[in-house]
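note to self: dont lose this again. the chain is below, predicted strucutre after it. 172 aa total, dont forget to put it in the shared folder this time
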Amino acid sequence: MAAHQKNVNIADINSAPPGGEALPLDIMGLFFFAYRDFTGDADALLERQGFGRAHHRVLYFVNLRPGMPVADLLDILKITKQSLARVLRQLIDNGYIEQKTGHADRRQRLLHATDKGKQFFGTLSTSQASRINAAIASLPPDSRRVVTRFLVGMVDPADRIVLDRLNLTKGL
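---
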């Protein structure tokens, strides 16, 4: 295809750029729309509390693994201490998360969701779980495992051990 020729159909758009492989633009676009809709309902609920997606991520992992050390959360989220400190402070001050001192190491800060934090997490997760369950229910029987394997394949190989620790790869 000449450099000045315009793309005229989806086959042209997904064709290989000079010296490269074909871009999965259709899948990339679907990821955009799926993520937008997956986060949309939760974003509205978070905004009413004065929170954002960072707060949701913290609530998710603290609910997934009660007693998680702050250091582990920093490693998972790959954000700065300063960014996490701001988000954690808001969640603690508003009664969603509590911080406890480690038993073996008194310097360790362990995070736990309060009842309020568990309830809010449940509310945030309901629409997201419904969306995922409905999408998987419309697929052939073994699709949940295939989708899980696909998503694990999207994660940086160095982080896959974290997925195992969080029990996110069960059944694979």
